[in-house]
Amino acid sequence: MATKRYKYRQKNLKHIFHRSETFAFFILTLAMIFPLQAYPETEHNYRLKGHLELGYLAVVSHRIQFSEDGTYFPYHKEGAQDNLFFINRMSLDFQLSSRHTLIFLYQPLSLQTKNILERDIKVDGLVFPQGTPMRFVYNFPFYRLSYLYDLNRNPYNEFSIGLSLQIRNATIEFESLDGTLFRSNRDIGPVPILKFRWRRVFDSGFWLGSEADGFYAPISYINGSDNEVVGAILDASFRMGVILPKNTEAFLNIRYLGGGAVGTSEDETGPGDGYVKNWLHFLTVTVGISVSLF
Fold first, then answer.
1. DSSP summary character for residue 48
2. What's the domain count of the chain?
3. Which residue range forms the structural domain that includes residue 121?
């Protein structure tokens, strides 16, 4: 069974990289067709630019545990997270001046699957017996506000550093399909993050870029609480694109999205003891479009 699942996951990853090569060829073709399209000069320094990405997400690894005596449950092996999931991503860049930019990002993230349990599992003191048909919900959308300062004076190239504030809005559920067994955990909280962005534009209009948001720290250092929880996040991507007519761009993006937390929260009021361990490693491949609104 494990060998069959491993071969299936290998096939999924090969499928991802095959699609990535196809998208990369599409972007390179656009770069050869269209010459460099410089954005027109305006009477003001500010500019608003919208970005939309569409693609798919693959779960490389994802495990979670609620309560000290709970099962460290592998979603990617036993929770039916071995398929590709649709993913989209939306953001706005507001350029305040040639070197100062504010960014607002919304990242929907919802993985809902069904499977039959291969063994007994325990979630916050509740046992779900082997053979139970289950519904798993892992919703972890987040909002992120960022500030970037560009160290590069060249208007076509960028090397920016800055800070982000991310708001998580998590809902995680384990439920038997007959509705008799159910556990739900919900959480909203701020996460401060360091940010980096780089971009290099070539004379042909083709460009390369990368971006990363990340941190690793005890939660108590962030919010001043007594919670003994250590959290981490890394949202890192590499992209290639081409500048098109009418202030638009098309691009291919490959992204690693990972992180999690481990420890005990003193604010827990649910059926468990407040202990949580949640680590995930996701890979996304998306195509996107950027439009300069003004």
1. E
2. 1
3. 2-292
